[in-house]
Design brief:
7 strands, Immunoglobulin-like, about 90 residues, single chain, mainly beta, four-stranded antiparallel β-sheet, elongated, three-stranded antiparallel β-sheet
Amino acid sequence: TDTPQVYATVTGSDGKPSLRLIGWARVRLEPGETRRVTVAADARLLANYDATLPGWKIAAGSAAVALATSAEDAILHGTAELIAQTMKP
């Protein structure tokens, strides 16, 4: 069993970069087997809470994303463009 994980680095509410686990999937593979997996990311995991709304807010901009086997073991790197949005708590 393997668990591919997707991480994003977004700016936290304190203005500092924050590494966040935004999605994962559990996959059972036989030795030598490969499989394509779709991992859905919950938009709220890219957001910061804004008490003035109140609600969750995603700032527009770029976020570094990585496919990994753990937070310390990234396999692939990329960039995602985030669209500004707000969500109710």
